[in-house]
Input
Amino acid sequence: MITIALALHLLATLIWVGGMFFAIMVLRLAAGELDPPIRVPLWGRVFQRFFPWVWMAVIILPLSGYWMIFSVWGGFAGLPLHVHIMQALGLIMILIYLHIWFAPYRRFRIALSNSDIPEAGKNLNQIRILVTVNLIIGLVTSVVGSTGRYW
Ligand code: HEM
Output
């Protein structure tokens, strides 16, 4: 059973962090040359398809994580340091994502549906900064989570 929890945990991590890496390090640079009226709605379609996967990850990660904590370590007493760090960083990532969803992304969608490209672009920039922060935390969390048992 624990193998299922760990497998789900790892797959959710790969999809979320890998997706952010692709968005920031590849698609952002490749799409940067497009004019805003083309580029900004393109990001709208990208988020529409990527964010449901992120919702899946922000639900699966804590569920599978706490499942492992209770079944492997029997709770929080005696939990190894790397799991404490992962849990803290994971919760920060989830809060940042919720903020993206309910603040700049909501404004971005409203602006886009009003064809207000400058306003949508302003919010896209905020989303970009927050996703970059989450990408950095996500890479660190993945390394801590997977190497922690050896230190
Ligand atoms: C509420 C949040 C989280 C909790 C409670 C949690 C808990 C755990 C636990 C208990 C393990 C097993 C550790 C071990 O056996 O040494 C684990 C592994 C791992 N976690 Fe998390 N985690 C959380 C969030 C995250 C996030 C946000 C990421 C990445 C972005 C992440 C990435 C990993 C990775 C890569 C592993 C190692 C998988 C492997 O064995 O290769 N975790 N996590």
